[in-house]
Amino acid sequence: xxxxxxxxxxxxxxxxxxxxxxxxxxxxxxxxxxxxxxxxxxxxxxxxxxxxxxxxxxxxxxxxxxxxxxxxxxxxxxxxxxxxxxxxxxxxxxxxxxxxxxxxxxxxxxxxxxxxxxxxxxxxxxxxxxxxxxxxxxxxxxxxxxxxxxxxxxxxxxxxxxxxxxxxxxxxxxxxxxxxxxxxxxxxxxxxxxxxxxxxxxxxxxxxxxxxxxxxxxxxxxxxxxxxxxxxxxxxxxxxxxxxxxxxxxxxxxxxxxxxxxxxxxxxxxxxxxxxxxxxxxxxxxxxxxxxxxxxxxxxxxxxxxxxxxxxxxxxxxxxxxxxxxxxxxxxxxxxxxxxxxxxxxxxxxxxxxxxxxxxxxxxxxxxxxxxxxxxxxxxxxxxxxxxxxxxxxxxxxxxxxxxxxxxxxxxxxxxxxxxxxxxxxxxxxxxxxxxxxxxxxxxxxxxxxxxxxxxxxxxxxxxxxxxxxxxxxxxxxxxxxxxxxxxxxxxxxxxxxxxxx
Length: 502
Hints:
The protein is of the alpha/beta class and 502 residues long. The protein has helices spanning 152-163, 180-183, 189-202, 236-246, 284-300, 310-315, 341-356, 368-371, 389-403, 427-439, 454-467, and strands at residues 8-14, 22-28, 31-37, 43-50, 59-62, 83-84, 86-90, 95-100, 107-113, 116-122, 136-147, 175-178, 211-214, 219-221, 224-229, 249-254, 304-307, 360-363, 377-379, 412-414, 418-419, 444-447, 473-475, 486-489, 492-495. Helix 5 packs parallel to helix 7 (341-356). The radius of gyration is 23 Å and the shape is globular.
């Protein structure tokens, strides 16, 4: 696998004719910085191409724009497959990695085929070219690394450390309850109190206190703001206080960019097609509004905030429906046309982090590479389920296996909940998912009521005990399947049966 990071060709794509856009590169060993400047032009993309060997037996694993959607796996080279942020290529004897550092000011995806490696650098504003106005912008830093061994998981961990040097991590392990996967939006104040009591009982004897996270259900309108309590919850400050008195830590869910507050004027919303549903975070008044939302929740006493849906709300779709670029919709722009989409996302995450104060932050449907250093915990895959085992298997196991290398390197990786709805998923299946999560060194959230039986309670207590200790873990059969069933845990091979017998 021969690769020279300095040997590339470049093409610039602007909204109109190319006149004054220039790119500059700076190399330092196996790193290459890409800069761009433009005065009157409105650049949209930069495409870089490297000549590289392409062995017939080469397998490649890429990442995802935001959460993964049961689509992470090692596959042969393909001219139609774009891989966001980075990839690792291997012939099972040696391997190499190529990608961009976290926190970059553009969206970067890679294609690897027999002609070589192509990087598409998306620096648009919405679906239009960006108005740089003479500004010189550092778009991304590309990083190459090669490994003369077959230790694919260890190599990927080492490479991820090269991409991120500034993670923010919780001081303690994060675990406890989340009410979504049994309630699915139908809950009330008294149920949350009952859930918190259950979590405290299950964590008895453990100094590290569990969380009780209130998911979508507490606000006035379904899945949207304003972020004020409905009639079933009434007093969110009192609820947070009671959760603390019980011995748990209160957490809460929000969707900051979807809000039907009539005080929010039309120019404060993104104009994309005919609808103006979502708040535009580049508008100064929206920034003030979002900051006030978060500060209110913080002042209520919540210790964790989970913000959701922002990628879909910003760019019009979920990552599972996107390929080489972050938005498929052309011809729209944000209120501030001078920043790239990546800069806009970073500014939003920085605002949330600053307003959150000492609250922990879970980013769900946030941009993975841009979340590093700005969220403590990152939801790495689409929703698992309390009703359908295949969702837990396909989304939960897949994302845990193929993004575990990012855990405690970019952020804490949350592969999602163990969900329990009575009569739906056999405990023999959920028990395995619980067991794997408890040894994974990643956050462990469960979603259940106090109606669970003695067997489940016993297993949860043991899982919480195990979870609060350090472990070594890695997937083994990652070349053969999207849902690895063989894992090396604390030096021992553990085999799971993820098959759905029903």
